[in-house]
């Protein structure tokens, strides 16, 4: 495999009061309404030396416009994925072979009106919705599917 490193990353499973999780449609895949990979969980890179719990709230605010949530659980492991061969050297700035991710389950404390995708001048997402946790793996691109399956299993206690 590639000699490139993994990019440190955090991800958020943001649960509403009904136990559904927020998924957002990638702005670079606007026609992917039902396609695997068009929808994903908020996630993003960590700054050097940044605490993962701080990073996940920062990333949520950057990507979905709110950090109005409480952390329910931190996944005990760093979960890794490798990019497909055709994306190595292209995706993630061409500097990484994939990502190592620290995932968090969070409870959303606000209202749907607080979720704003239009605050970033270059938004990553163009739509969002609440989805059943069990539906996550089918939404993921194939190279992230195993992580979404693991998250759906390991954070099932927070689902409705």
From TrEMBL:
<comment type="function">
    <text>Accelerates the degradation of transcripts by removing pyrophosphate from the 5'-end of triphosphorylated RNA, leading to a more labile monophosphorylated state that can stimulate subsequent ribonuclease cleavage.</text>
</comment>
<dbReference type="InterPro" id="IPR020084">
    <property type="entry name" value="NUDIX_hydrolase_CS"/>
</dbReference>
<dbReference type="Pfam" id="PF00293">
    <property type="entry name" value="NUDIX"/>
</dbReference>
<dbReference type="GO" id="GO:0016787">
    <property type="term" value="F:hydrolase activity"/>
</dbReference>
<dbReference type="InterPro" id="IPR015797">
    <property type="entry name" value="NUDIX_hydrolase-like_dom_sf"/>
</dbReference>
<comment type="similarity">
    <text>Belongs to the Nudix hydrolase family. RppH subfamily.</text>
</comment>
<protein>
    <recommendedName>
        <fullName>RNA pyrophosphohydrolase</fullName>
        <ecNumber>3.6.1.-</ecNumber>
    </recommendedName>
</protein>
<keyword id="KW-0378">Hydrolase</keyword>
<dbReference type="InterPro" id="IPR000086">
    <property type="entry name" value="NUDIX_hydrolase_dom"/>
</dbReference>
<feature type="short sequence motif" description="Nudix box">
    <location>
        <begin position="44"/>
        <end position="65"/>
    </location>
</feature>
<dbReference type="InterPro" id="IPR022927">
    <property type="entry name" value="RppH"/>
</dbReference>
<feature type="domain" description="Nudix hydrolase">
    <location>
        <begin position="5"/>
        <end position="153"/>
    </location>
</feature>
